Amino acid sequence: MIRDLILQESKRQSEVINLIASENFVSKEVKSALGSDLTNKYAEGYPGARYYGGLNVIDALETEVINLAEKLFSTDYHVNVQAYSGSIANLAVYFSVLKHGDTFMGLELSDGGHLTHGHPVTVSGKLFNRIAYRVDEKTNLLNYEEIKRLATEHRPKLIISGASSYSRKIDFEKISEIAHEVGALHLADISHISGLIATGLHPSPFGNADFVMTTTHKILRGPRGALIFCKNELAKQLDKAVFPGLQGGPHMNAIAAIGVCLEEALEPSYEQYCRNVIENAKLLSQELMNLGLKLVTDGTDNHLFLIDLRPLGITGQVAQDKLERVKIIVNKNAIPYDTSPPQNPSGIRIGTCAITTKNISQNEIANLAKKINDTLRG
Ligand code: DSN
After folding, report:
1. Is 121 within 8 Å of 115 (Cβ atoms)?
2. Whose CA is nearest to atom 1 of ligand 1?
3. Domains of the chain
């Protein structure tokens, strides 16, 4: 029964056009590592300091994955490769430097931030005092002056940059500067754009930010998991926050699969893939605007953009359902200063990581834009 359902899902994935900005398709090699014998092994602890026997190979493997992560991002930061997911990785950073009730800053969810950046429904919002910063109401761009004003007023211990639905470049250096001026640390959550950073297509937070976190299953085309980087003086407390603070045994099969995706991302073809992701997002967004659709910030610098559905008089849920009926998969998404509820917001988010992996052509993108436009208006 489960086998049938897995096959059904594979079939579904092969029959639709996937425009979900955070999804992708992994290689056979990544899948093979995920399904390998490494899933049988417990490995609590870190290389050279474990609590079980039989770990010689596992130690070599985890050390190699760490080396690959440092190489891909050209950094000498400490790396932890064990976090089960981005949510846990962010939480580990918080627990490594914040105490219950401490203040930190993160981008408002409806403006492109992530739930784990302190939204009140999450543990990050319940345990800590999150001050949300917003994008500018007119331009919908990050307002660094306002971030600085809030940081000066609230004196947070940590400022988080990074987003799940922000289509423009982020000035990580500026945010590090603001954080350090008020005595805060800076966590750059680069989950959505890590590939662009690794290939030099987006300015890097490394060298300035104190922590850098990325999930591995989006543009990096790896398994579900995360990498946490930090300046070396923060390494001990970060590792302790991951294990034993939040997690038990690491999922060594997932860590091996992360290693495979990092090896793939170190190949020259990965840079071309990332260039194509951006080019396809720019082309698709331009075609949609030519057809009269309204986009938040009128375009994109990266792999994603948001369509503001208000001029069409439909909601995000309606748009998502209409598109799914013609086999185009998107997610409903809040737009900045959205007055509609999150369950039925005023926008949809579109990303090009998955269709670029499937080698979509420019002609197909023009046809796709027409189909999206016709469907939304139909
Ligand atoms: N849920 C992911 C996204 O879609 O952006 C972020 O974790």
Report:
1. yes
2. 22
3. 11-25+269-377 (3.90.1150.10), 28-265 (3.40.640.10)
pLDDT in tens, 295-350: 999 999 999 999 999 999 999 999 999 999 999 999 999 999 999 998 999 999 99
**Among residues 222, 203, 217, 239, which one has the least CA distance to residue 77?**
239
The closest alpha carbon to 173, from 229, 141, 121, 212, belongs to 212
Using alpha carbons, select from 348, 346, 330, 329 the residue that is nearest to residue 338: 346
**For ligand 1, what atom is nearest to the CA of residue 165?**
5
Of the candidates 28, 65, 60, 33, the one whose C-alpha atom is nearest the C-alpha of residue 47 is: 60
The DSSP secondary structure of 142-159, one letter per residue, reads B-HHHHHHHHHHH--SEE
| Protein residues whose CB sits closer than 6 Å to any atom of ligand 1 | 22, 86, 114, 164
Mean pLDDT of the chain: 98
Q: Tell me how crowded residue 62 is: count the other CB atoms within 10 A of its CB.
A: 25
Catalytic residue among 23, 44, 173, 263: 44
Active-site residue 168, yes or no?
A: no
Q: What is the pLDDT of residue 95?
A: 98
CA-to-CA distance for 187 and 148, rounded, in angstroms? Answer: 16
Please provide residue 294's backbone torsions phi and psi, each rounded to the nearest 5 degrees.
Answer: -100, 125
Class of residue 243 by CB neighbours under 10 A (exposed 0-12, middle 13-18, buried 19+)? buried
